[in-house]
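Hey team,

Filing this mostly as a record. A colleague (T.K.) asked me to run one chain through the structure pipeline before their review meeting, and I want the input and output archived in the tracker in case anyone asks later how it was produced. No errors, nothing strange. Just documentation.

Input sequence:
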Amino acid sequence: MPESEMATVDDTDLVAFHVGDHVQDCDSDDEATLLVAGVPLQRAATYQINEDGKTVADVNPDYAAEEPVVEVIYPQRTDTHLDRKQTYAFPAARLELVAPVHDRDDNTDKERQ
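Output structure:
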């Protein structure tokens, strides 16, 4: 998809997560800690997750299509490299911050409830 057709998150929509943050999936009974691997600045409605054209919004109908996307990985204690891990895309509202990696100030600390 050409970049001009992508619905992006503008500067006024600060994403609550940063690369390296530890998060959990609010919809999962599994309490696995996920690692934020990317914040692509795209909306769930336009972020394609497969070659069939399915988007993050398509597979997460309980969340707003305009929700920003966050890419995460499922790290394991025995991992020696993270560059080979598969990433998964979630609407930001589906994730809960467990541990921030970076300091946050009053302007960017927008933890989701």
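Quick notes for T.K.: The longest strand covers residues 34-38. Helices lie at 56-59.
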